[in-house]
């Protein structure tokens, strides 16, 4: 899809929503009915610039729209939706199951670990025809859900390990099915998408240094104005917003899961003074870093 035609497809920050990423985690897990029933069981076609969905439908059915094609799936089934893939769902009211959403840093990490065997960049669906396949995937999804909802020591490590095991199982399904799902993949020849992916990779590598948009655009080989236009068209946010979102996510993680002082967090993220960091954080969350940390600890 050319970048210019992408503007008609909404860009969501989460499953069915335009709200900001709601957690300091790199993973979000919820039941499918939890959010889809709020939308009359329909999530209209949309895409995510930097998120990957894994859906496990354990009961009921779903009409799936995936990159311009429609499919009627019965349970049990699994669905993988990578970043930039256009997708929509119409669930039956009796649907049961879970949706696991991976933020780009975790998705990229797991993809790198799995290499060519990873399914995280291949949009596809998998009917679960063998009871042992269903049981293994259902067990892993249930364990992810339980660990996500009940924080405990080593939570991040266990969530990553469980998710990696889930990706392995899905990769096996892909191998058994004997298909690569290339027909669903974002067009690799699309220069706009390539530039966005390059920009996201540069953010991940350098966000702690807080480089200027001009510096990053130069590395990609485009002007800052063109980069900003691409980000708005394909990601629904400006280039600076994407950089700030990654900074904010890391700040939330450090405030939640480390004992670093506010000054240490500020330094680690490239702010010249803690006061600047506090203003940045409060502007984007309405809370000071200290208030956010207290709220997170009170909820754990």
UniProtKB/TrEMBL annotation:
GO molecular-function terms, A-Z:
DNA-binding transcription factor activity; sequence-specific DNA binding
Indicate whether Ribonucleoprotein appears among the record's keywords.
no
Q: Which UniProt keywords apply?
A: DNA-binding, Transcription, Transcription regulation
Entries under SUPFAM superfamilies matching the protein: Homeodomain-like, Regulatory protein AraC
Q: Which residues form the HTH araC/xylS-type domain?
A: 197-295
Q: Which InterPro entries match?
A: AraC-bd, Cupin_HpaA-like_N, Homeodomain-like_sf, HTH-like, HTH_AraC, RmlC-like_jellyroll
Q: What is this protein called?
A: AraC family transcriptional regulator
Q: Report the domain of life of the source organism.
A: Bacteria
